[in-house]
Design brief:
single chain; five-stranded mixed β-sheet; two-stranded antiparallel ribbon; 2 helices; 39% strand
């Protein structure tokens, strides 16, 4: 499994799931990210997530296929 680390921008408590997928390069746009989430292919902390703009916070893990994204708060 490939692991990607993502740091939230200072002053931000969360990132929307579809935007996270775009920013780490797992899809080309936020719209494509929404489609991935709607298809049921994305898990957050081991549970299938279908809310396209779910708020992903530091400490959560997002999985798509064999890629896991670990979200952390920037120092």
């Amino acid at each position: 499994m490939q692991t990607l680390n993502f740091e939230l921008d200072p002053g931000h408590d969360f990132i929307e799931l579809n935007q996270l997928l775009k920013l780490v390069g797992l899809c080309e746009s936020g719209g494509a990210g929404k489609q991935l989430v709607a298809s049921g292919e994305v898990c957050v902390d081991g549970v299938t997530e279908r809310r396209k703009t779910a708020k992903i916070r530091a400490g959560q893990r997002v999985r798509l296929d064999d890629v896991e994204i670990r979200v952390a708060q920037s120092a």
